[in-house]
Amino acid sequence: MSTQTEAADLDPVERKAQQKAWNWYDWANSAFYTTVLSVMFAPYMITVTGRAAGCTDADSTCDKTVSVLGLHLAAGSLPSYLTSFATISSAFVLPVVGAFVDRSDHKKRIMGAFAMAGALCAALLFFLRDDDWQIGAVAVVLSSILAGCSLIAYYAILVDISTEDERDDVSSRGWAWGYLGGGLLLAVDLGIFLGHDAIGIDEGLAVRLSLLSAAVWWAGFTLIPLIRLTDRPARHVVVNEGGLWWRSFGQLWETLKELRGYPMTLTFLLAYVFFNDGIQTVIYAASTYGSKQLGIGQSVLIATILLIQFVAFGGALFFGRLAARFGSYRCILYGNVAWMVVVVLTIALPAGNVALFVVIAVAIGIVLGGTQALSRSFFSLLIPAGREGEYFSLYGAAERGTSWLGTLVFGLVFQITGSYRPAVFALIVFFGVGALLLLRLDPRRGIEDAGNRVPAVV
């Protein structure tokens, strides 16, 4: 017997208003992920850490180290280590947060609290200057973990404000807004960075202002969903003894045990681990492949990063429409096939051909926005009612806990072969395994096992 979500009882006009308010948080937090984590932080952190290690700003190959908790780490590697530490820490923290979210009647407030705390930590990056790298290290780790925590509550709210048939459209619009918002701020920040001389500031201040702008954007636009969303009571909460945090840990353990009783949900999580790792590595490796293997200039690479952001906006909306006709499951499956085609075409790109490089970037943008948006909405259908926080935390942990694997494979293959072409081609394995696991998944059975109503099109 399937059960309806509480959202089905809301007036359609009220649901639409809540969904529009919900979309604003994608717009808000994407600035942090795009401007800070994807573009600005790592190169600037390497410069600041290098000064502390005794390197000069002109020495791009300095291998001197800094001491971090007694470990001597290369200045140029510190941002990667910080990102990995935050990622692995999140994999442990998020499931507990998810259990807490499900037991609370205030998902909106939890999302807002984590978001504001994360934005505050991100704002501390403005003080990353000269050779004072420590504040940046602490700030980026805390803001990354807090951002992930806010998303657990945010994803759980999706189920409260949409019916099963609406999920793909709502999630796709959210991802689209995220790419658009992140792209717009990044365009402004890159303009400030590239034109810093014209406005009378140095390069370091231009970067610090960009990092601060992402924090202000994140906090400022989070106010919209905080004001407009309505908290709803927790549903189907399992009664456990003890305080709230103790009950959260206990319920997490029960969820991990019960997950075996939802084989389709588990299968999708495993598939997501692989194909999402492939997606993240393609994003990570794109600029390296373009500059080192194809000889593409820095200005073209910057323009391409922006292009992918804006194309992904359209890609998310396009895949949302495809899902309305063919179902999200099929779109995700064929999206994996599209990723494999992109990988094959990428390794065949001739060096120096900017036009073809841009064409591949457009293809990446289209499939990038679509697969990520629909993965979120499809997974929501595989979650038992009232357990959205817990299961979305496992979804986040699956994403973050193994997101180093693709970059490791990429690095190892390059080290063995001395070429980035076979390193990129190796990523096809991640999409291939993801596709094979998706083929083993029965979407209708998974939705029914979770007690949800099967949408008109799966």
From TrEMBL:
One of its GO terms (molecular function) is transmembrane transporter activity. SUPFAM superfamilies: MFS general substrate transporter. Residues 264-458 form the Major facilitator superfamily (MFS) profile domain. The keyword Ribosomal protein does not apply. The chain crosses the membrane at residues 81-101, 110-128, 134-157, 177-199, 205-227, 266-287, 299-319, 331-349, 355-379, 391-414, 420-439. Keywords: Membrane, Transmembrane, Transmembrane helix, Transport. Its main location: membrane. It is found in: Cell membrane. Pfam families: ATG22. GO terms for cellular component: plasma membrane. It is a multi-pass membrane protein. This is MFS transporter. It comes from Marmoricola endophyticus.
